[in-house]
Description:
The structure is a single chain. The protein is an alpha/beta fold. It has 12 helices and 11 strands. It has helices at about 10-20, 40-50, 60-65, 110-115, 130-135, 150, 160-170, 190-210, 210-220, 225-235, 245-260, 280-285, and strands at about 1-10, 30-35, 55-60, 70, 75-80, 85-90, 100, 120-125, 140-145, 155-160, 175-185. The strands form 2 sheets. Strands 1, 2, 3, 4, 5 and 11 form a 6-stranded mixed sheet that branches. It has a 5-stranded mixed sheet with strand order 8-7-9-6-10. It is an enzyme of class 4 (lyase).
Amino acid sequence: MKTISVAHSPDADDIFMYYAIKFGWVTPNDAKFENIALDIETLNQATLKGEFDICAISFALYPFVKDDYALLKTAVSFGEGYGPKLIKKKGTTLKRNFKVALSGEFTTNALLFKIAYPNARITYMNFLDIEKAVLDGSVDAGVLIHESILTYDNELEVEKEMWAIWVELSGAELPLPLGGMCLRRSIPLHSAINYENTLIKAVEVANKNRRVLAPMLLEKDLIRVDAPTLDKYLDLYANDNSVKMSEIQYKALDKLFELGYKNGFYENLIKSEDFLIPSEYEELRAR
């Protein structure tokens, strides 16, 4: 049986959505999934190099890898009135060219930040180090992602919500596209459909069995936060809207790609639904 590498981030929503497979509740038909947990920008860079068969990515990366990876419909994270936060020390005023820490060049928050703050001086670091860098004055501000949006130090305050920036730039209250997954195009179509369906089922099973799965993850020390914070975080980023992308989510993703294209970050304007795995192939094949 072949082994398929599945890379995801170590944050709570990715762990939660994947572990129905890890615990054997859901299994692919013709392969063994081997999971790897790395921070999101490391995953973005790895996808640029084609290192993994299936990989979690920032949505903002996708136009750069569209020729080598298909976009998956599942295990997606969107903000609905919330998202990453631009934070600073309480009582400080940011200058026009303030120094800011971002979690990676190809993250969605970096794309939106660069459009909104073209004069800021950007430095990149692991998302776990950003809060400390702001507190010790290494940078003037930082964009927090993942669980840190719920747990940051009380000496810090929010300068701007990335959700607010998204609404201003997009001109509509579409959900904020943050991250999803992609699959190597060299994988045969029949297998690709099988793997995507496996992941869809895993996210669905995880959501339906959240009261069982979440305590198991905490007990095995697989999650960085406590039970109440995990519960709140899963409400935000691992929910029914994560199982399979909806029409409004595709529309939001297209708006993100449009913003990137119009601001010179992408060479071509693409539509998300043109880059999905054509799952209808299996239905036609069965006729």
